[in-house]
Amino acid sequence: MNCCTVHFPGTGRYTEQQFWKLSNLEHLYIDSNSFRLDVSSNWTPPFQLKYLSMGSCHIGPAFPAWLPSQKYLIYLDLTNASISSTIPNWFWNISSNLEYVILSHNQLQGHLPNLNIGEFPPNLHFLSLSGNLITGTIPNSIGRLSSLEVIDISSNNLIGSIPSTINNCSHLMVLDLGNNSLSGRIPKSLGQLQLLKSLHLNRNKLSGEIPSSLQNLTSLDVLDFSYNNLLGQIPAWIGTTFANLVILNLRSNMFSGRLLPSLLSNLSSLHVLDLAQNNMTGEIPVTLVELKAMTQDRDMGMYSLYANGSSYQYEERLIVITKGLILEYTRALSLVVSIDLSDNNLSGEFPKGMTKLFGLVFLNLSMNQITGQIPESISKLRQLSSLDLSSNNLFGSIPSSMSSLSFLGYLNLSNNNFSGKIPFIGHMSTFTDLAFTRNPNLCGAPLVIKCQDEDLDKRQSASAKDKIDGGYVDQWFYLSIGLGFAMGILGPYFVLAMKRSWCDAYFDFVDKIVKWLVFRRRVTYAKNHAQRQ
To answer: What pLDDT score does 492 carry?
Structure first.
């Protein structure tokens, strides 16, 4: 059967019989499914492959015994294939044409081989062994793989120092040694890799200062030295040399000193700035507004850095700590526009220029000594998804304009000196009291502390109601008295005026009463006078 390319869809079990007629097969793609290849240990395939991709297939625990028969392989992908053995010695001599080797996310064990010239593919461009259980050191012989463009041996158990011979890989575009236990200093020889675009040395035990030779890496897009023991001042030449830098991650080291304005003055392509958990001091430079890329729309394809005419691309990865969570971004990395300067000793007022970075999605300035007020112009950060300003010395009222930040999913303003009433309106009403706690002079919903003006308003409202109700009662009281008095006076007058005989009898009766009262008064007076004599 004449067949050059076969894609096996779906899942299932495949045996030798399904392949015995495919003598002309060159491209075999059965990745991204639960395919299981069930062949005998001495099976020799009838084909000679050039491209073999069996990612996410059940191949292990050992490497396929038939693999050494494929003498013309160019591309080999056995990602996540349940292989848990060591890499056999014959593996590196499968094919002199081999350019791509991708064995990531298995459980590969053992050491990296110390290969001599002639014991490895001379045209190897892409080597990925990430996410395995490989131990030992990185051999000096890695410098003999001079045609390599991508080295990814991250997330293993490698120890020792980074070999200085790696500078011989002069075509290297991506070097990812992150998430191991490498120690020692960053070798100065890395500065000779002038085509390097992505450098990941994160999550190791590296110490010392960043060598000045790295300023020769003018093509860098990604620099990730996070979670190490690096110290000294962050070099100012990072801002003047790396004009194309998209990601700068120096998180969780021991860097100290001031955050120099020149560090941020020329990073016009920067999308991620993470300097958290260091010992930085001083004010946040006003040159922060020079981060022009943070004011623009994101390019969805900007993080696929390795192409070189090939269909396979190296995929950038970045750990972002936001919303109290540890998130890993890969394909969605282009959505991340972030500044994290938290857990340092930065001081000075809140940088108003930061509100001009309209593309910001994550902003974390927590656990510093920043003072001043949050400007009303913070409402211009309409893309903001996470805002953490907790544990600073910020004061004043919380701007009511923040209620218009409709994308804001996480807010933490706790442990500051904010005062006044919380603008619990619009989108701000979606946050709980945890976002505002430990601000002694802050009041209003969602806190249980009521504002004084709220109590005053209630009292004034009640008093006004009482006045209205009391006035209503008083008006009827006095009106009834007036009517009673009028009826008492005018009633008899109208009756007597209407009938003369009643009038005469009435006044005769009154006259007798008056005379009797006068007589009684005189008798009483005479008795009292006689007794005194």
So the answer is: 58
